[in-house]
What does this fold into?
Amino acid sequence: MSPSQWAATFAALVVLSGCVSSREREDERASAWVDAYLDAMCAFHARCETDFAGFAERHQSACHEEGYAYLRRAAARAGRTTRLDDDIASGCLAAIDAASCRVAPQTLVPALIACQRPFVGLVEVAGACDPTLGVTMASECAPGLYCRSLDGACGGACEALPRRGESCSAARACADGATCVVEDEGLRCRAWSLGAGEACDVGDRCALVDGIAHACVEGRCAPVPVVAVGEACAMGVARCEDDAWCADGICTARGALGDACGPVQPCVEGLRCDTDSAPPRCAPLGVAGDRCAGNHECAAEAPFCADSDGDGVEHCSVTADGSWCRVGPAGDYPFHAFDSCPETHVCAIAGEIYSHRCYPIAARGEACDDTRPCENGSRCVGARCIAIALPGEACGAEVACPLTHACVDGRCAALPAIGEACTDACFEGVCRDGVCVRRAAGEACDGMRTGWYRDCEGVCGGDVCVDLLDVGATCGWGLGGCDAELVCVPTSHDAGVCVARCE
It folds into this structure.
């Protein structure tokens, strides 16, 4: 869906909001927003397929009508125990449209984070709620509350969320923007990224301000004090002046030009440790062709430390081809992606695993392979980059469909769901005897799809299908999943219990 279509869609929702006077119509408006949200998510992940690489398929489940089913369930409760927040809903769609394909978790704009909580709960303290909805997307409890499961059974009651300094768990997120963090005495709510001058407690985290580290000093977020060479230093307590670094808790001078250097004796900024000399000494930053151990050792004229010819030796280079790079986890969060390469390149693996290097991006119509990924909005098919269409759009030899769709009669059609007729691939499970079915216990499955696709009759554990758990069984990460009619309600940080969904 194009940006103009997104804008028109939400404009219609706002108009509808003004016309609705009864809760009976609220679920219709919420469902309309879910449609717009999933269209936006589908377009985003089709456009950004290259950056999400092996995680692209799981995220493109937003393109299929069977994907993100929990959102439909959440929308159905709008007008009864939840309401759609218009400001969050509209800001979310606009943020998805503007989001870069290279967004790291720590740099996500608030509007994208807010996409995970578009519904506001209406149930007050002690009111009945559904604990099987979890703590995201559509909690029925009013802001500042959470739904506590009653004796591990279906049904719950709204209680206050823990505040800063109080204990927390996976089932009890923190109030007031605090984050549940692991400490020596257990999980506890702590403030995250407080601004300069804000009140704080030990354990709270202050944000960087203009690149300067801040910490909780006498109850307020203040710049971390700068200390001289020879004085004690520690992260968040005292930082060394620019030409020094913290070594074993003491500020130590960095090496100047010609001084000896090494792993425990770095050089001042603007110099590098020349390991080709004996002993290694601080030298000017490298120029094109000089050996290097990272981009920080190269001058601005040749800023990339790259193995451009594949001989295993890195040299300063004017291009990023073959330079070492970092990628962030795409993970389960729909906006997790990070790539340290310049926009003209993609960080990918070619050859030995974990050998991440920057490779030039191939334009649409150009040749492509593992060392020349396609530009966003296109896919490498038959060693050539072709465009990716959205659901329902035209497709063919020159245009591919989302990974959850197939080209049928020249249009991108959704892959068949469980129980539907098939000839090859299915949205979930496998095509057997012309029908989509789930894999039985003991069959191989793809663990990368777990949590987004239910390919097994049970659950995919360790790339093998295993049976689902019955009511009352302990569930959670590494412990197995609950039967299809049940849900795992957290009872601790890393475990839960299988209970029936509330009606």
About this structure: The longest helix spans residues 26-47. Residues 27 and 78 are 5 Å apart (CA to CA). The radius of gyration is 27 Å.
